[in-house]
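Hello again,

I reread your note about wanting to compare the complex against the isolated chains. To keep things tidy I'm splitting this into two emails, and this first one only covers the full assembly. Below are the input lines as submitted, including protein chains and any nucleic acid or small-molecule components. They are followed by the predicted structure of everything together. The single-chain runs will come separately.
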Amino acid sequence: MIEFEGVGHRYGERVVLSDVELRLAERRVAFVGANGSGKSTLARMINGLVLPTSGRVLVDGLDPARQGREVRRRVGFVFTNPDSQIVMPTAGEDVAFSLRRSGLSRRERAERAAEILAEYGLAGYADHPAHQLSGGQKQLLALCAMLALDPAVLVCDEPTTLLDLRNKRRFAELLTGLKQQVVMVTHDLDLLDGFDRVVVLDGGRVVADDEPGPALRHYRALVT
Amino acid sequence: MTADGWYEPGSSPVHRVPAGWKFAALLALAAAVFALRSPVWLGGICAAVVLAYGVARVSLRRCAGVARSLGVLAAFVFAVQWWLLGADQALVVCLRVVTALAAANLFTITTRIDDVVAAVEHGLGPLRRFGVRPDRIGLLVGLTLQAVAALSAIAAEVREAARARGAQRSVTAFAVPFLVRTLRHADELGEALAARGEGDR
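Full-complex prediction:
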């Protein structure tokens, strides 16, 4: 359960979010809104990358502002640009990097990493230079690196913006099959098939919060 | 990422030297080169490094790439030093820079980053009792090497964009977006590391 209680955020004078009240228990939740609507900031609050300047956030009863470590262990995060998420030279090492605190030996970590890569369609890429993968493969790698930590929640911030149509569909299908609760920030409305709840943000406020159909009608009316 | 100065798999004797020893040898060589003043000795060491490229069976294409970038640098350094200090000093400085950089390049061509990181972590292990965190320093070394690739990719993209706008000679058309993108990359990388729990312990 992810709870936002009267959450607001400002950078200096600029108000990015105000009075957000949400209780997210659904398996598939999307934050939709125009550029600058505050949706990415809201998503970053779930794992404490950004802290609210007013109100508070709770993830399974834990406050990211005070229990950041426990919260980040529960919440995985996939960013828009896979290039800045990959921190190790090869795909296998990058996934193994996530497992470095797992207590497994170097060899076991490498094996586990190879298994995870294979599970998500990157079999045989463990020794491949990570930065030479295609955009779609890089985003899969970023996903693998997060799933290696077995989080309860996966937050994705516009994960398909840099992908082509085929890779975008593939990524969306993979997300559908995950056991994790998924919170996705997007303005790609095609991705929202099968979502349980769509929260529409505008100017830092929640302006619609509904099933995808009605919420997206509201969003379309907003942008036209 | 540019192909320049990156790991090239191989099984030559140079590849097979353990990363830790190779790294120590590189440091020793760099120190020696900067301590020596005799052009004859420096020339000898430089020749030995060139020979090591042969032993490592580095592809000709890679050798040409390294030679080209070092050549440009050497010409520039030589010209400046000649003007400031005279031809003899310029030759010494040039040999030092070229030898050290060529050796460092050979090191990255023949050594996997992961092995370097593991060697650093292993080598610093005994310092753990003094509060040093070898895994942190290993990560730092890994990220530093990664940064070279990331920055050269950004530089290439920015140069392309400048060319597309016909501004390839403008310094600001390169420097401003390069700086902005580099800072943004640093921000994103920091966020990604935080999201993966780095810094939580």
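For quick reference: Chain B touches chain A through 28 residues (CB under 8 Å).

B.
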